[in-house]
Design a protein that fits this description.
Radius of gyration: 24 Å
Low-confidence stretches: 1-9, 11-19
Distance between the termini: 51 Å
Oligomer: single chain
Number of strands: 11
Helix content: 40-55%
């Protein structure tokens, strides 16, 4: 039973009405059977991202780029097991990632194209990151978050999230590669959603490999940029890949909780949701102290909307709960954080992505 069926079920049984089963009288247990079927189907939902990860790991989408192929043909090319591959592809087809024709050949749909590794905005490494065991295992222990009130990550891996990444090169590579892939699909439209000044310095705080700053500099030729992060992260930066922005950027190494380079605009993309309120206040205070007169802090994060309609921020929030000390925040939550850091929320600008631009100015 899928979500649309569940809504129909809710409408029929909200008042406790009995439900007529096919061919007979009203059955007071029918509503519970329908509920059971719905909940069991939902509980099996974890197997879809498992299949998606498996397809990403073995690069199936790349082998479908030239057109439809049967699992047997794919197996001959890739060395995979044809029967197992068919079972994975069949599940992916139920969600529209691939489609199967009458001859048993599978093809990538429009929805599945970004699973390829050779296309712009490829999501392959992002899928691998989001389904990595460092994300998967803590999510499986959410019960401990409810009973202990703390993230489950440290109990599983023996240390906090970012400490583990700092000492585990494989995990760090997966994480930074996946974050870069997620950013590639967001950065251009986010940079276009905000009216940056004609001149000045933009500091990308915790900016990773610099994908967002690269797009900001491309769109704003009078602006200079500073990419600020840890040394091992900056080593993978991409700012030198575009000759048009040459001479307009610098790298700065440091701890953003202690200080931040001076600038007119400080960007914090997917940073604050990693940390608890006290830590965020420290970070935001550091940024405020480094702002030039008239400067602004732009927090680029999901803003949890009111109500219970589906929104990716509500899913991401449980990932934060399982693995980190942070959370996804509402507009009111951001306003409270800014107030404690000597800032004032001035506006929230939506973007075509799940992220919004949450703008703050010195109070």
């Amino acid at each position: 039973m899928r979500q649309d069926e569940a809504k129909h079920f809710d409408a029929r049984t909200a008042a406790g009405d009995t439900v007529a089963e096919p061919g007979g009288a009203a059955d007071p247990e029918a509503r519970y059977r329908r509920s059971s079927a719905f909940l069991i189907d939902e509980a099996l939902g974890f197997l879809f991202p498992a299949a998606l990860r498996a397809a990403a790991d073995v690069g199936v989408a790349d082998h479908l780029a030239d057109g439809p192929r049967t699992p047997a043909e794919l197996a001959t090319t890739t060395g995979l097991d044809a029967r197992s591959l068919h079972r994975v592809l069949r599940l992916l087809a139920t969600r529209g990632v691939v489609a199967e024709d009458d001859a048993g050949r599978f093809t990538l749909t429009d929805a599945g194209q970004a699973l390829r590794s050779d296309v712009p905005c490829s999501a392959r490494t992002a899928v691998q990151m989001l389904t990595d065991r460092t994300m998967w295992q803590p999510a499986g222990e959410l019960t401990s978050c409810l009973t202990e009130g703390t993230a489950s990550f440290e109990a599983i891996f023996g240390m906090p999230f970012f400490d583990w990444f700092a000492q585990d090169a494989r995990t760090a590579a997966v994480f930074h590669g996946g974050m870069a892939a997620m950013s590639d699909a967001e950065n251009a439209v986010i940079a276009a959603a905000y009216d940056f000044p004609e001149t000045g310095t933009v500091v990308d705080v915790g900016g990773g490999h610099g994908g967002l700053l690269l797009e900001v500099l491309r769109r704003n030729p009078g602006v200079a940029g500073v990419l600020y992060d840890r040394a091992h992260v900056l080593a993978g930066h991409r700012l030198d890949t575009d000759k048009e922005i040459a001479g307009r950027w610098t790298l700065a190494e440091g701890d953003f909780f202690a200080s931040a380079p001076p600038g007119d605009i400080h960007l914090l993309k997917r940073i604050t949701h990693d940390w608890d309120d006290e830590t965020c206040v420290t970070l935001l205070t550091s940024c405020r102290r480094s702002l030039h007169p008239g400067g602004r802090v732009l927090v680029l994060d999901a803003v949890v909307p009111r109500g219970n309609a589906p929104h990716q921020s509500k899913t991401l929030d449980l990932m934060m709960m399982a693995s980190l000390t942070g959370r996804e925040r509402t507009e009111a939550d951001f306003a409270a954080l800014f107030d404690r850091a000597g800032l004032r929320l001035s506006r929230v600008l939506p973007t075509p992505t799940v992220l919004s631009v949450v703008e703050a100015v010195p109070a």
